[in-house]
Amino acid sequence: MTNLLRKLLFSLFISPSQVLGADESPGLPMVINTWGGAFTVATDAAYLSLLEAETSALDAVEIGCATCEEAQCDGTVGYGGSPDENCETTLDAMIMDGTTMKSGAVAALRRVKNAIGVARYVLEYTTHTLLAGDLATQFAIQNGFVEESLTTTESAARCEVWKQAGCQPNYRINVLPNATESCGPYVPIPLNATSPTYPFLIAPGAKTASHDTISLIAISASGTMAAGTSTNGASGKVPGRVGDGPITGSGSYVDGEVGGCGATGDGDVMMRFLPCYQAVESLRRGMTPSEAAEDAVRRMVRKYPGVASGIVVVDNQGRHGGAGSGWNFTYAYRGGNMEETVVVTVLPVEEDKSAEL
């Protein structure tokens, strides 16, 4: 199959709402992020903020992610979503400055709603990159953030239904009682050559909704860039689990000299590949945003064919593209003089690959 025909076939899988082709720029300022639907409130909030001269790209990223946190986008960002085995919601967030390359992050943050805000405080008021757990909560409270429960009536009820269904699905393996049939407490069993291996147990039976994350990249009118990520992780996770969201280079990454990237999906797998760092470096080597996104996804799929992933990539001129695996991945963008956010849908790379002649 020629490259021209492959691109033509791929274009058939782009949402009719897309007004510009992949790897084209709508102009600056620009905001782009993982997912459409409920997540477009973040795209709009961040983009509109950039129309004010005093708003930096870093500000826009914080505004966009905080908007999703407050709106509880799709139940997978912010409070009241993705309860762990103990029915508690914890938050992961990261924000990165594309000029200084400095990032700030929080992981397994408890009892504070504005995770992206705390992450920015880590960036601006410490020389650290990542704070975690209760001590991240302590840092937040010391800096004026409010301590409050992240559990809602809905999230508590959802967790109880999960428990009544035998805690299915969950993320335990090689334990007794059998984690595919019942709740714990669990104890580990000795491993041997016949023990199940993780590649066949990536979030067994998990719904894709449990993986949705907002990763957002902003480019100001002057061309400065920033990126950030916010999520409440995977439903039914082992308490204390941290995914790819707060990991610089995995959940998101930005270098204002080149471009930025945002990721969503099975964070336990994705963080092993640092896909956003990989994608930005691919841009640096001359790939288009679409090529860089697909290359990052295919690197993961070769090792973990069942991985659910989504990568959105944008260069420092606003040219953009995306790729995913395991689901139909969407991303949203708004830039230049666009009057509304546009959502782009791309089929998983497995299907694109199978279409080859």
UniProtKB/TrEMBL annotation:
Catalytic site: 213
Positions bearing the site annotation: Cleavage: 212-213
Protein family membership: Belongs to the Ntn-hydrolase family.
SUPFAM superfamilies: N-terminal nucleophile aminohydrolases (Ntn hydrolases)
Origin: domain of life: Eukaryota
Lineage: Eukaryota, Fungi, Dikarya, Ascomycota, Pezizomycotina
GO biological process, one term: proteolysis
Pfam families (alphabetical): Asparaginase_2 (PF01112)
Protein name: Nucleophile aminohydrolase
Species of provenance: Pseudomassariella vexata
Binding site for substrate: 241-244, 264-267
Hydrolase listed as a keyword: yes
Position of the signal peptide: 1-21
Keywords: Autocatalytic cleavage, Hydrolase, Protease, Signal
CDD domains: Glycosylasparaginase
